[in-house]
């Protein structure tokens, strides 16, 4: 899990993902030689800070967003959120502006967020949760499991994938915006009719640690019933532990597939986490493993 | 009105419209022989659960959404809404899961909705209002007049339509998502510059039963003034009774035309109903008739 | 500044922009002869009420919305907002319906807006703030500086522009809807990778009168960091006074570029105003001048 640790140490608040993409690109270039199938790689300014890998003849695409929630400095010592981070006073934040490295503590609440850095921070500077990874026998804990685990799952999938797109998207935590051009590129080059969203969901009263990867029947948006039935049927026949999620809120890259000008079915499938969007996100290692196993099977059978 | 009764008996909560589309497809296949013009039919997995009919050389498209609001079972005995149904305790709901047919009563309120079915319902199961159609001399009452009447209007139009698209869309009640690919298909095959939304609106202080079909000058979204003027001018010259609607809220498939990458004018035109999104929606039969008459004229003159 | 005065006198509430576009078209037809480069003009029903000018070989597009906020008459003496106008009782409103010219005062508050016109106003009639332009030595004040100043900036740019699109969009104040088809047309005819939003922003605790044009690092949406860095770097090297804006709220035509199916970078750059969306919007003439200067430089260097 060396790569997972490296992914978790990367900073990449929505809008500022270029370093993360550079890292992924280098990793893919190095690792692709030992993967079962050599993917075609799409990368560079035409794709902004996204990265696409095409394996064989795709029927299905997997999307994993690489951006994270965080904060941006405003004027004086004010901060404003990027995406929907938990506002917990005392949380350590890190970043960098032209004057150098920044490490400071978050203060305030939803009404007004501030930092306690002794000097001013240049307006528009991104700050992330300071990382503190803890891996035990049952759980992984730290910041940004959402969605570094989804990215990790996608990279594990690459090792054996024969046919399919693996796509690393940006801006998911803050209103989206890369999915529309990614989908256009995919549909005009090697079109697909099915998509899986490799992302992390919430532990709730109905979705629990250690009960397997969650197949989401709905969040704020509702995938097509026919496609859900197909996925659940494959999952049932597999030996992989899974649970069904039914939520009224939340969204993912799936929203932009739903609203795209292509008839592409989509489903969110991911391990659940506790302490969402905090520095202490917590995921069951068994659930992460189920996620990895189920993606392998689905990408073959769908 | 046999077909209207059959339409009203169909279940088809947003996301689960495939049975409704199958019914419509069979109806169209049977009826098209007696229509004035034989349409070209687009149907099947490439169109998800939508259905498109192309008559002659279209200048204008009519869109009628086939999905309905409803509920979905969550965990324990919880329900969550699909679209925006009225939450009226005691309302009878019906559906089906793998254990068999379901008939139960809604309990709770906007804060938390529950069912009283003796056994658990599988998570993700769709429930609809139990249907109770009442047709009198002046009114039709029942669940899902929105938008079975809009579908009925579109089917009546098919009988004599010479040029135009008639399109049955999905997901309208829950955030949309089929309109973008339907519009792309239309524009790439037989493009149009005008669209009418065949849907049901609200009785308000300014829009009343028995005063004719409503031409909507705006809801949350605003059609282009030039197109509205053209429609109102045609309506005035006709003998059909109509009224003008000006609302601040609400939306329709028109929203997705407005936001589409095509310069297509749109307007919502439909009979008004009382008791919106309840099991007792109520529409004036005279207004429904005005709706049918006005669509015939507009599709010829526009 | 004769043209600016003429622009400010035009009415053009979102949805009803055709007179404004006609005016712009005539102005462009007349003025283009004295511009450095003769643009290709795209205008007419295929573009609804928008207007596009293509100069040379564009790398970047400038978008200026021509619509304004305002009000629409509903039933009885009710008004509903178009966009987000300030509701200030006693404000003079003007418009016209089939019975003639209208001049009346706004009454009520956010809960309910009314007019005091002696006769009824036809439902669906657009009303605008009565114009009262005041130009002093330091400031310009009046209604609709947002976005007549952005349009003025775009027209000034046309005088010397060698390569670039200058685009006049509609509906920006009320949910958008023209940007998607404008972007599609641009990308399919003479594609660009960069866009500047020529619009007016807010005076806040961090953005002040007389401190230069504002380069917006974010509003509700976040442009890509890489593009911001490029713009700020060019601005720093120029002699033009500018300030950086970091806001949590607000949007512009940039939102629709962000969500478009094209990988186009965008940034909002505009002078700040006080008394936003009121009849007394106020902009520093020096800031307006900085805006005009910075656009010239950016369109050359980007």
UniProtKB/TrEMBL annotation, chains A, B, C:
Source domain of life: Bacteria
One GO MF term attached to the UniProt entry: metal ion binding
GO biological process terms on file: proteolysis
Gene3D superfamilies cross-referenced by the UniProt entry: Peptidase M42, domain 2, Zn peptidases
SUPFAM superfamilies noted in UniProt: Zn-dependent exopeptidases
Key words of the record: Aminopeptidase, Hydrolase, Metal-binding, Protease
InterPro entries: Peptidase_M42, Peptidase_M42_aminopept, Peptidase_M42_dom2
PANTHER family: AMINOPEPTIDASE, AMINOPEPTIDASE YHFE-RELATED
Protein family: Belongs to the peptidase M42 family.
UniProt-recorded name of the protein: Putative aminopeptidase FrvX
